[in-house]
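Fill in residues.
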């Protein structure tokens, strides 16, 4: 299910539902089609279906729009086992048109299994198919109490970058790197040559060393090489972390920020303080990481209205997420409670004080909170589509779109909606308490990955009666413990 067909003449690509972005980039790479792009994910290991269903923010979304804006047609198998193909040619208020709208950002696991997608292929604007891309990790000197860090990052986030410029930034404190000192990693994708990139960077008036290194650590290259080699190099840590075989645990929360000056004075201050607190709290622990990543969006992705597709938070300029990573399962309670406080400080600064990116879901959002956080007012139309295509909630995802209520409850909700205050509700306090999720990630992994030991092992101390097993016994690929 990962075949890809590229129709060069019509600039369209058809991709099967199991394809990864690496599969979709391949025809462009193999034919060295420099200057051509599909609006895909940063990591070639991300699935095309999951990405599109979440809306999708790609390295060139600032000039091409959201990933789902490039969809022409999508085929799914519904809960009834029916194969349905819907697309942009369906009338928007028809059953099919509404399903297409819902599949563009309504999240995974809601309406059916995607088996095929047809999407547009675009021309980049850089001359001769050149893009300029790179990566730089900045370790700012903490001596001035991080005044340089804060002032540079303030200018960086509030700068009115051109649509050709995309720079993701991740602040982090890693107990394995420089004793957890604050660092910021920048990942650059520029649709154009090095000279034009440098000109834009210099306009931002960042710290001199940062400005210099951002220009030194990029390379101009043909776009086919960028898709083949550079995306992998830029995102290698994140890709490896996402492998199921990775032994660490990770918990997330996400936010949708604009880029107004008032918010970014506060956001930068909070991120700095929390990373410093993380460093103090987890000092001496091994393999602990706290990362606040800002995925650069806006530009063309923001130019359509919030209800153009199910993906609601189009006016986001930075899709941000906090990731806490740890290896020791006994740290989950402390990590969760740290994340809980960190996100409570940032949440009021997110769009409508509640927005969260469904592609980076937050497992701690409670039953009353997650639909508002992921979809805002778009959830009402999503619920209608859910009733049309999955009335019994066959797919049953924990944070799935709810089948809408009927009778009095429905009338009450319609009255609330008419009162017009629906989207402004602040969801603080609707989250699940961190303590209630203690031992969630480790126990979920245990339930999913390990077959229970047969009873006779328990009685005899192992299959040959000679001891216990570490990591699941012979079928679980583990080793004998004693
Ligand atoms: C390393 C990494 C980098 C990322 N970079 C980006 C980025 O640049 N931009 C961005 O927007 N997001 C990014 N993401 C987030 C990513 O878009 C989401 O995690 C997305 O859900 C991944 O989809 P998947 O198919 O790979 O994952 P899965 O975990 O397999 O699926 C995610 C969801 O989609 C559903 N789903 C998957 N396939 C299908 C299908 N065929 N039919 C129906 N439902 C399906 C699943 O049921 C699940 O609910 C990144 C994630 C990672 C781990």
């Amino acid at each position: 299910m990962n075949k890809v067909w590229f129709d060069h003449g019509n600039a369209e690509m058809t991709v099967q539902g199991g394809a990864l972005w690496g599969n979709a980039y391949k025809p462009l790479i193999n034919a060295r089609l420099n200057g051509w792009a599909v609006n895909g994910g940063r990591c070639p290991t991300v699935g095309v279906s999951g990405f599109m269903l979440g809306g999708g923010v790609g390295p060139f979304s600032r000039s091409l729009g959201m990933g789902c804006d490039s969809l022409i047609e999508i085929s799914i198998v519904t809960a009834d086992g029916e194969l349905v193909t819907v697309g942009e040619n369906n009338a928007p208020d028809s059953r099919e048109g509404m399903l297409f709208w819902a599949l563009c950002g309504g999240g995974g696991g809601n309406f059916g299994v995607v088996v095929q997608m047809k999407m547009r292929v675009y021309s980049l604007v850089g001359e001769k198919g050149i893009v300029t891309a790179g990566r730089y990790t900045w370790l700012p000197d903490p001596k001035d109490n991080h005044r340089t860090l804060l002032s540079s990052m303030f200018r960086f986030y509030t700068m009115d970058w051109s649509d050709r410029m995309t720079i993701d930034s991740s602040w982090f404190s890693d107990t394995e790197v420089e004793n957890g000192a604050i660092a910021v990693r920048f990942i650059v994708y520029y649709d154009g040559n090095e000279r034009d990139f440098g000109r834009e960077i210099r306009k931002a008036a960042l710290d001199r060393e940062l400005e210099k290194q951002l220009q030194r650590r990029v390379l101009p290259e043909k776009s086919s090489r960028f898709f083949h080699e550079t995306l992998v190099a830029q995102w290698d840590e994140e890709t490896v972390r996402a492998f199921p075989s990775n032994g660490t645990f990770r918990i997330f929360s996400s936010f949708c920020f604009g880029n107004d000056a008032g918010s970014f004075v506060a956001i930068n201050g909070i991120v700095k303080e929390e990373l410093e607190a993380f460093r103090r709290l987890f000092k001496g622990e091994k393999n602990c990481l706290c990362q606040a990543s800002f995925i650069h969006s806006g530009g063309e992705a923001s130019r359509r209205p919030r209800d153009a597709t199910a993906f609601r938070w189009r006016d986001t300029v930075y899709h941000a997420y906090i990731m806490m990573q740890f290896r020791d399962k006994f740290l989950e309670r402390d990590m969760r409670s740290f994340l809980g406080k960190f996100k409570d400080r940032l949440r009021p600064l997110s769009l409508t004080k509640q927005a969260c990116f469904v592609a980076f879901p937050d497992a701690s959002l409670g039953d009353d909170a997650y639909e508002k956080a992921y979809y805002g007012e778009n959830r009402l139309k999503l619920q209608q589509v859910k009733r049309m295509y999955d009335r019994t909630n066959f797919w049953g995802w924990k944070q799935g779109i709810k089948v809408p209520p009927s009778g009095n409850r429905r009338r009450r909700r319609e009255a609330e909606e008419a009162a017009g205050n629906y989207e402004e509700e602040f969801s603080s306090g609707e989250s699940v308490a961190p303590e209630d999720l203690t031992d969630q990630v480790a126990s979920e992994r245990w339930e999913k990955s390990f077959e229970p030991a047969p009873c006779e092992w328990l009685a005899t101390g192992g299959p040959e009666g000679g001891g216990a097993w570490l990591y699941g016994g012979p079928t679980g690929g583990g080793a004998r413990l004693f």
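Confidence is low (pLDDT under 50) at residues 421-430, 453-482.
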